Amino acid sequence: MANLRARVGALVAILAFFPFFTFAQNNTTVAASTFFLSETETQFSINVANDSDDVFIYSTSPAYSWVGFGFGAKMENSLMFIMYPSKDGDNVTISPRIGSKKAEPTFTSAVDLEVLPGTTVNDNGMFVLRAVCRKCRTWPGGFLDVKSTAQPMIYAFGHGYPLYSDSKSANLKRHIRYGHYSMDMVAATGLGGVPANSPMLSGVQLKGKMTRDHDRANLAHAIIGCLALFVIWPLNVLFAGFFKNIRIHVGISVVIMAFLVVAYALGISTSAQFNRSQDYKTPHQVFAFIALAPIVLMSLLPIPSISKLHTLIPRLHTPMVSTSFLLLVLTGGLGLHLSSQARPVILGYTAVSLMVFIFITVLTSCIRRRGSAYARANNRKRVGEEDDNMVMLKKMDESRSSSKASFTQGSGTQSREFGADGQDRNQRGLYGGGTMPGPQYLLNMHPGVPVHKW
Ligand SMILES: *[C@@H]1O[C@H](CO)[C@@H](O)[C@H](O)[C@H]1NC(C)=O
Ligand SMILES: *[C@@H]1O[C@H](CO)[C@@H](O)[C@H](O)[C@H]1NC(C)=O
Ligand SMILES: *[C@@H]1O[C@H](CO)[C@@H](O)[C@H](O)[C@H]1NC(C)=O
Ligand SMILES: *[C@@H]1O[C@H](CO)[C@@H](O)[C@H](O)[C@H]1NC(C)=O
Ligand SMILES: *[C@@H]1O[C@H](CO)[C@@H](O)[C@H](O)[C@H]1NC(C)=O
């Protein structure tokens, strides 16, 4: 019984203790203007000292990812204060940055920001920042109008991924939400001091609602790249290696190339957005450019006039395809790392890569062991992959020369169209006799070449 009473007593003591902590923030009479967002309990208060050039800042927000506030109507040339948890997660890193148009803001050492005692990440997972900014009233590209009753301001929240860093130039992910407001600097002017915790707007006009941001170009970059690599690519291996259908193979290859071109273009357009990627030095970008070499070789070598140059050239197609695939998969993984994706996304990507890799490997070894459908249909025994390359090239060459023939012969091929002679019958078997534009059309790319009708 005494034991229970002691426990209840301890509980009461703890409960009694809590209000002391939560209300420990004194309601001092420091002049301030306060931005407050009830959804996240985010507060950002400014005090403009009237006895010095100092600007005092008090801010609190949930300590996940980053939160930023900036002086100015838009990102460009705005002086921003970006806050994120420190490396150990028990303090706040505050990074003054200068914004640029549609790109990640850059750390600036032009302002002198001093973090004051009381700055912490508290038990509720909220960070509390108490700071004084010296030389903050002008910065490269802008200034703070302390006489303004409606100083334009911006704010933004980063993605909910864990960003823990002591570095003031830590790489940021693009904001997920942002908004605008104006702040009364006259009301914020008074005796210098850190503003108090205050969960209400004061001297602030919100301008519009918080905007949800979408990084559609980057998302499309990832999705188009993955579709090309994990859906269309294995289909192509299936059609090329197993069904030996040169027409469909060339067609699908062109589609893959189109997807890759779009993915590369979107990637390049996104690169300028972030400090870390604008010099094209990240592993993701380096691998993407290295991968171009086997991709170009893989696409050019099967062209008959090139493949005829040396007997070795046709054998290079398969190794080039494998090299391109591996490099592109690696590039994709490095891209997820570069964009700080969550672990499940990276694990999912790895799993899909492995599955597709196993699928292609099993398919290829099946083709090697059993011979392709085409080879079996033609009673050829144990056809190797290199031989398959030769077979495909021969087909491509035949189709090309026959398209040339039809072109030069013009309307004189009427009798061939009826398939009277044996050679034509043979070719009909090779190409499946469909009516879709043949490889000769895709390869020659001459708009003037008529599509040959079998
Ligand atoms: C809070 O304000 C009261 C007077 O309003 C003062 O006596 C007290 O020292 C202040 N506490 C802190 C922690 O500043
Ligand atoms: C956080 O860092 C500031 C400045 O270095 C310091 O004054 C404060 O005491 C630190 N807070 C904690 C909880 O370590
Ligand atoms: C990128 O960040 C580094 C490190 O903070 C900085 O020195 C450099 O000026 C930045 N570059 C650009 C173009 O923003
Ligand atoms: C600064 O503002 C306070 C009121 O917050 C006032 O009492 C004081 O006289 C002002 N000082 C100057 C130098 O204007
Ligand atoms: C602080 O005190 C002032 C007047 O003394 C009052 O108007 C204001 O509501 C108080 N703020 C908080 C957050 O308690």
From TrEMBL:
Record region (Disordered): 397-435
Entry's transmembrane regions: 219-239, 246-266, 286-306, 318-340, 346-367
Pfam families associated with the record: CDH-cyt
Signal peptide start and end residues: 1-24
Record-annotated DOMON domain positions: 66-158
The UniProt record lists the keyword GTP-binding: no
Polar residues bias (residue ranges): 402-416
Superkingdom as given in the UniProt entry: Eukaryota
Basic and acidic residues: compositionally biased ranges: 418-427
Protein known as: CBD9-like protein
